[in-house]
Amino acid sequence: MKPVRDLGVHLDSELTMKTHISKVVRYCYHQLRRNRQVRRFVGHGVAQQMVSALILSRLDYCNSVLFRLPWSTIQPLQRVMNAAARVIMNLSLRDHVKPALMELHGLPVEQRIAYKLCLFMHHIHTGQAPQYLSDCVSTVSALSGRYRLRSTGSVDYVLPRTRTRFGERGFSYCGPAAWNTLPSELHDITDTGTFRKRLKSVLFHRA
Asked: Model confidence over 9-42: pLDDT tens digits?
């Protein structure tokens, strides 16, 4: 079956997301080639802004749908990240890219996906998310029975049971899965700006 496009995301019949990733990668490399042509005429700050606007914004768009995909599937996105870091730092293909990524304080692709999911959960937790998204999850403290007595003060969210790994890619599972791994002090932050900064630091150190 031919993939369909919904809100800019290309969905194939088996939801492998390979078509979507392929198109994102193709677009990003096209933009990177154009950026490299003008890199020597602009400074570091301008190069970083161009890459952020044209490349990273595209990588991050709807990236939460890529949760729990095999590394072999999302690896091309990480290669784009590496190439983007080389453009910003004006490196050649022979130069190691890891020090550049560290200096730029850039999150790897897997952490960028977790960042987006945790941000969604933060909006739900602080009452800023739309109702249809909030209805997808429930807190552990809202459970009834004896388990509720042990978890009244918990800010974790329930991980629904799934029969397959495919089911773990739904937001009702992947959102709580990402949120529950965060340090408890992040759960208590209500200011979104502060949460973003602290979340990025946590995920960066994990990476």
From this structure: 999 888 899 999 999 999 999 999 999 999 889 9
Burial 136-146, CB ≥16 within 10 A → b, else e: bbeebbebeee
- The answer to whether residues 122 and 102 touch, using CB atoms and an 8 Å cutoff, is no
Contact by Cβ (8 Å): 48, 88: yes
**What does R_g of the chain's alpha carbons equal in angstroms?**
19
Residue count of the chain: 207
Which region holds residue 195: left if phi is over 0, alpha if psi is between -120 and 50, else beta? alpha
Spell out the domain ranges in the chain: 4-106, 112-206
pLDDT tens digits for 168-202? Answer: 889 999 999 999 999 999 999 999 999 999 999 99
